[in-house]
Specification:
The structure is a homodimer of 760-residue chains. The first copy, chain A, has 760 residues and is of the alpha+beta class. The first copy, chain A, is built from 20 helices and 40 strands. The first copy, chain A, has a domain of 291 residues: Beta-galactosidase, Chain A, domain 5 (Distorted Sandwich), CATH 2.70.98. Chains A and B meet through strand 14 and strand 18 of A and strand 14 and strand 18 of B. Chains A, B: Monomer. Chains A, B: Pfam families: Glyco_hydro_92, Glyco_hydro_92N.
Amino acid sequence: MRQFFSVCILALPVLATAQDNLLQYVHPMIGTQRMGHVYPGATSPFGAVQLSPDTDTIPYEVNGKYNPDVYKYCAGYQYDDKTIVGFSHTHFSGTGHSDLGDFLVMPTVGELKLNPGVASQPRSGFRSAFSHATETAEADYYKVRLDDYNILAELTTTTRVGFHQYTFPASDQAHIILDLVHGIYNYEDKNVWTYVRVVNDTLVTGYRQTSGWARTRTVYFAMTFSKPFYQYGARKYDRRQAYHGFWGHFDQNHNFPEQAGRQMRLYFDFRTQEGEKVKLKFALSPVSMEGALLNLRTEIPGWDFEAVKREGQAAWNKELSKVQIDADQDDKENFYTSMYHAFINPTVYMDVDGSYRGLDQQDHKADGFVNYTTFSLWDTHRALHPLFNILEPARNADMIRSMLAHYQQSAEHMLPVWAHYANENWCMSGYHAVSVIADAIAKGNTPSNDFANQALDACIATSTRRSFEGLGAYIDKGYIPSEQDGVSVSSTLEYAYDDWCIAQAAKKLGRMDVYAVYSKRAENYKNVWDPSVGYMRPRLGDGSFRKDFDVLTTNGQGFIEGNAWNYSLYVPHDPKALISLYGGNKRFVQHLDSLFTMELPDKFFAETEDITRDGIIGNYVHGNEPSHHVAYLYDWTDQPWKTQERVRMILKKQYGPRPDGLGGNDDCGQMSAWYIFTALGFYPVAPGSDQYALGSPAVTRASLLLENGKTFTIETDNQGDKNVYVRKVTLNGQPLTRHYITHAEIMNGGKLVFYMSAKH
Amino acid sequence: MRQFFSVCILALPVLATAQDNLLQYVHPMIGTQRMGHVYPGATSPFGAVQLSPDTDTIPYEVNGKYNPDVYKYCAGYQYDDKTIVGFSHTHFSGTGHSDLGDFLVMPTVGELKLNPGVASQPRSGFRSAFSHATETAEADYYKVRLDDYNILAELTTTTRVGFHQYTFPASDQAHIILDLVHGIYNYEDKNVWTYVRVVNDTLVTGYRQTSGWARTRTVYFAMTFSKPFYQYGARKYDRRQAYHGFWGHFDQNHNFPEQAGRQMRLYFDFRTQEGEKVKLKFALSPVSMEGALLNLRTEIPGWDFEAVKREGQAAWNKELSKVQIDADQDDKENFYTSMYHAFINPTVYMDVDGSYRGLDQQDHKADGFVNYTTFSLWDTHRALHPLFNILEPARNADMIRSMLAHYQQSAEHMLPVWAHYANENWCMSGYHAVSVIADAIAKGNTPSNDFANQALDACIATSTRRSFEGLGAYIDKGYIPSEQDGVSVSSTLEYAYDDWCIAQAAKKLGRMDVYAVYSKRAENYKNVWDPSVGYMRPRLGDGSFRKDFDVLTTNGQGFIEGNAWNYSLYVPHDPKALISLYGGNKRFVQHLDSLFTMELPDKFFAETEDITRDGIIGNYVHGNEPSHHVAYLYDWTDQPWKTQERVRMILKKQYGPRPDGLGGNDDCGQMSAWYIFTALGFYPVAPGSDQYALGSPAVTRASLLLENGKTFTIETDNQGDKNVYVRKVTLNGQPLTRHYITHAEIMNGGKLVFYMSAKH
């Protein structure tokens, strides 16, 4: 493993002493192979620009059929690929659905090629061969040699600007291609419109409007070169050329400053000396070309690539330093790479002056907060936002402000479900924004009491939108009839948990009428429990349980991303009651044990999205979030040592400092947040409560440097790979007799000591 | 004729005494049959909204082939059609190219139909039969009964808002359809994107983005109903539905408030009593939905349809009253309908707060002027803008400000050629914006000397853009080689005239260096004159004239919209020199006479766009602008009486108070402006000079009420249909011995008397 990342370790000359330099443990390459769906390129903490190499350009359809490879390329990069098509400016981190890939830039020399070519045919287009041997991926820095052109490409960013540095060979035919056809999740009609204006021989502005996963999305740009191009041109690939005059008033393909259409690529030509660096700054804006220019000039006025890289990496080091751990090298790399992945999303979504495009497709100014987007809430409400409530409380409060703004702009009067770039994607189930809000309220992390009440009102409005998936029936019957909804059980369970969150927030705010209503709704999970089989089960409108039912498969069973085995354990807000449904402690423990140990038939793997034999432990699927709290449920039984054993085993099996080191999609940081909490020894089983269930720390020692100036320290006694069991825990010197700690105990600072043992 | 328009005349109860009511002479229906390309619907003077019935919806292509009928429907309405598809909010007036037709609204009752159907099959869709018997078209008011539904539809407007009043029968199934698929010049890919937000049960906002004739165009709207709809829905017709969630989180086709896609229609349902009026206000904005709402609430706060109509018609009466004429009924109808058509374009292009989208696709605020668009300058520089310099000097100055703003936002650094809605369409030849600017400078009608100099700088920059059609070669060689350009001769001639305009402006501003350069360029017309044949003729790069050359046909002869016969007379700025090219007075007169009297072979009509046997007099084509000055050229010969004879004959032959009363496209008011000038007895042969050539007035008497408070009166002695010859002219009592009057003589007020005779 060392070997693998040696390049990265050597590549940090500009940074401070290795001791406080935590960047050395960050390997963006982790998770770029197979399932992780993360990208290796450059980005700033929560940055609006994610500037990263795309190793292929995948058509959404082949011969009119969906192309399953699209899924592999959610982040644009696959470690096993041999060519790079170019460097695009927007990427999701770890998602299971894709979009973005805007503004692909590619430097080339020699004959001008404007077709990307195909991976199977070397030099068939402008793409270039590359090898990992000449590739470096660090926090906010990426470097690679483009072998076909002998061009060294380096990338770094600020929040809103991508900074490219290309070292060219000597050439009279040096090109920089701006590919506006390229995109991720790229079906034929994705590109809605593109406009480009060549302002002068170093400045180009424009916008790109797409309808991909985000239905109505426009990104504006301003791009400036460190050296004037001596000529430029455009090529269009539209089904029909947009009307723009006749009898050739102008040659509009060559040195013509105004281009528009659906599908186009531009090129800018230079003459370069051997080793000459041509630099390129590329700024994005959600509202206008002027906004992009403002961002460009504000964030990177000069051309000092090294300085921008240094500042970007310093910003990362500051974020990483919020947790200082002692652990072995592998664990440190897993831990700090998880911290890196956790602090990428949500992403900043406004210009430096606060301007952003709202969900109502009108322009707004963020008043007194930073507006964020990329809310993958079905994933991130579980552990990522709770982690922010400890390490990033100010940002988390702004994320909630951003969700409130989304709510106020929503034609459906709902909080975000899966939102990015002024769009609601209606992806996955539940209304988990309420969990994020309730968790912040429970932990006293909202701007004001008024704000908290407004936020609660938004939660109530969202949870009473009867036309939303099955919600009307859920409100009337206490469950979603399976005739109405393919995922009736998981949605019912998730609504019940979300309703409990609303109840907790209401209680905290002294709104007992709301508390009463939602406490009752929180018990709706019971309505889909079939005691005759001991599973949550699809239920028909007439109250009877559906006959055909397979507890192992997911498809058509009333669940999403989880089968009955896993989802039946989804009552995070009341494990005690869940245990009694299962018939008490003994039978519940047996059930959990079987989950982690059973052998699954092969057909299961064929059928279940995202799941491989490594991605699963028995029938426990760590790659899919509905199970993330499950290993901690033993804490509510008489065998909490099994939580300790399981979580340590999951840490080892599902995470590793290798390109294939993520057992599933990182899901905008949720998988990483699970790692961070678990490695520290505790986990938020039910966000919305102020408790964290205790597990078994993987670190030897950790200090959390909190925004309030206090420090919370986790120490271990007799830590070791085999010593996964917790004999005793003390908090500030006093024995802790319960299996949880509270948020207040963390935020007050102090010391939590785990006494480890090889035996339980 | 009376009969035909009787409906209109009866339909003016709300207006003041017939005596000052000039609206009675305005018949928007004139020119709606065949070639006029005008629309009969409602619009305000220079209004941004042109709310008019579309009688068919014409696909741009049929089986992949261009559909020539598209041309007939430039204004959406053809008099001979039997059905109305609906009422859309934007229309060109008299153009020879098409676009617009945005936001078609159609009221229906009974079964909901969302397909427009076809004209040949009654009731095949939502379109309705109608008859001219129940149709009324007035300035800013249109009324028709939709026979299939027994709905009375009435339309009026303010500058930025269309006001619909629908009188329904009793129905439980009353619908108002908003068709966002419909458009004029409507090829499959024209619709780029559409967004609709149902804000509440009376308010809907959104936008429509098209790439038609205008390449990158977005129009925003806000639409409000006088009565809440009880349900609504949308239907999409996209090749592919835009992604918007899965597992039916919502039923997005019914009562779902947020719609987006490329092709969609919406419906809004009501229950109506017999005779119940449902009203609808529809506001447009070039920049935002908020802007449209602002326009809506500012211009029509209430629901009083009659009051809005009354104000709109009063505004028209005010414009029409600027010229008071005595003439017979037909001439009055021709005259005031010409005034009406002349005051429709250019159109206001900004919100009430001055916001508009610039040519640079960024939003701007018009600072201290009204921003206009729809510049059909190849047509309108000839007589329409000169007419504005007399009757609408303030507006004309703002139009020039708008052209300067266009220039400042132009990536090509050029003044508009054919511009509308933040787009340059590069349509037709020349750079005639310089003629409009020079004419205003010559006539002292620019805001300031500084402004005039800026405007001149813009003219110079435009005329030196070497990459613009043949201009580089023109500058180097003094003509455009015919190898380079299919319209090399007409462009050379037009550049020469435009250059003369620049010279005149420079002289007036004391910039004699510029005057010298452009006075020389102004003589370039001589470089395409072939003395061996006595015609302007395509010339090759080597200086020789092109061998194959046919003086009658247009196609491929180096001309646009005019053959060698007509275009060879295009030296408006120096008729004297032109006459000597022709070999002097006698031979020139013979040439002109033949032009007006020769018999043309049939093949000519087959080949020549826009030309029918009625549209032509001999070989003189009044329907195409390059000839508009030709009849006045006799003034420079010893037989000016032939100008008098010809122009009176053209007035009679080419204009009439009938649906087919326009001999050719009105071309945004140019044909009408020719009528107005000629009927008054003078015409601006060379805009850029301060002279108007004298003709033969068709009116008995006319008073021009000028903005400066003065009145210029034209009187005739012994006027009559046969008395077309002018025996004598006096100006303010003094005999006028020249064949022109000056702009100053008009603007100083006074009296011009024509002494008419049946003999010359």
